[in-house]
Design brief:
Distance between the termini: 111 Å
Low-confidence stretches: 49-55
Order of helices and strands: HHEEEEEEEEEE
CATH class of the largest domain: Mainly Beta
Bound molecules: dinuclear copper ion
Helix content: 25-40%
Number of helices: 2
Radius of gyration: 28 Å
Mean pLDDT: 86
CATH topology of the largest domain: Immunoglobulin-like
Strand content: 25-35%
CATH architecture of the largest domain: Sandwich
Structural class: alpha+beta
Length: about 180
Amino acid sequence: MSSTTTDAFEHRFHQAAQRHERAWVFISVVMIAVLFIAAVYLVVHDYGVVAKTAHIYADPNTPATLADFQGSGVKQTGPNSYNVYEMGRIWSWTPGTGTPLTLPAGAHVTFYVTSGDVLHGFEIQGTSINLTAIPGVVGHVSYTFDKPGTYYIICNEYCGAGHQAMIGKIVITGRAQA
Ligand code: CUA
């Protein structure tokens, strides 16, 4: 009699343990699935497999449009003032070294900078210009180049295998005659 009671107890115990195990196996599988989906989403969304940049241009307060970033990169806005538009993508700046930005010394220049995929660091060597290019956000900074010469845009935020290839070129010519 006592042996059957023990058997019944053990049977119930094993059944409960199995339910417990099944529950935890299920929870583990769900967690793996959620992490997998999150990883795929991050790769697709944040690493530019599908770059969603269009929404930044719908913002009425955004001081730059998609068309601005698709032009030559330089827009004269006054007698001695210019806007410059730079888009970072893995792994180049647009405009890049192939199409140097040409600006006169002494001009008031406002740089508008964004990213089409991941974070990039927009730095112009030899100047104080250093801002982060953020997907979905247009940052801006104003600067006046006092000395003619060649300046290079680099990327100072590690963004992958071709990070060091992200270079742009700015040619500052002599002062425009007032
Ligand atoms: Cu872009 Cu480093």
